[in-house]
Prior knowledge:
Blueprint: H1 2-10, H2 16-23, H3 27-39, E1 43-49, E2 53-59, H4 61-64, H5 67-80, E3 88-90, E4 95-96, E5 100-103, E6 115-119, H6 149-154, H7 158-168, H8 174-181, H9 185-197, E7 201-204, E8 207-210, H10 212-216, H11 218-231, E9 240-244, E10 253-256, E11 269-271
Antiparallel strand pairs: 1-2, 3-4, 3-11, 5-10, 6-9, 7-8
Amino acid sequence: MLLILQRAFLLRVRTFAGWRDELRISESVLASRLKELLAHGIFTTAAYRDGRTRYEYRLTDRGLDLWSLLVAIYSWERAWTDRPLPPLIHDICGNETRAYLACGVCREGMTARDTRTVRGPLATFARVGLPRQHRRTLASRTDFSGYCPDSMEILGDRWSTSVLAAAFLGSRRFGDFQAELGIAPSVLTDRLRRFVELGVFQLIGGHYRLTERGLAFFQVFAFLVTWAQRELPAPPGSELTITHHTCGSALTPVLLCTECGGTLERREVHFIT
Length: 273
């Protein structure tokens, strides 16, 4: 799903054929993903004519709100991988920017260490993430148009996202993850091994600890949790309340410009491609 959204934002892909040609996946798989995105109100369809009536997929307000998540992914990849990525220009100040996470209330820069989380009695990790995610092998392209394989591994499916969320909320041992998630041992072993290989976790004395690289992914996690809790319905008591230590406010993540300190808005930035 992230690949579909990335192309909708960056390449302005709107049609079934456009995603099929870009992603090189089967039509049945693509149709299933688009159906899910429509069902969750991330896309809506609009008719247009190209010899005969066809439909294009347009981002709704709910879908457009995922822009910050994708820029947070870009920012993490820019900081923590060696892959060439296009510069991001802040149109307001005219400078290339490295977007960074800040508190929307006090506007101080923020990391995972600057927050604490309280879980509601019914909170589960199923609410952390986009609607159904699916693991798939990516093509060899590693630019931002081809998307970023490290981020896709971390957010590649429901279990990967849940393992990361559990780590941010304090799980360290294999048994802790298994008890929290109810995940099959073989699946958990695979995800933990892969996170160690990616440099997101470090295994020390039987504890899987987030590395600096893993902790930096909190900027993505912050937008993911905020969007999911705002847009995906859930019963009372299932929330994760993340608080910023410095000002005591509930998490309201924003991306700020490294050059002018202004808030980065979707219509006020562009990539040089």
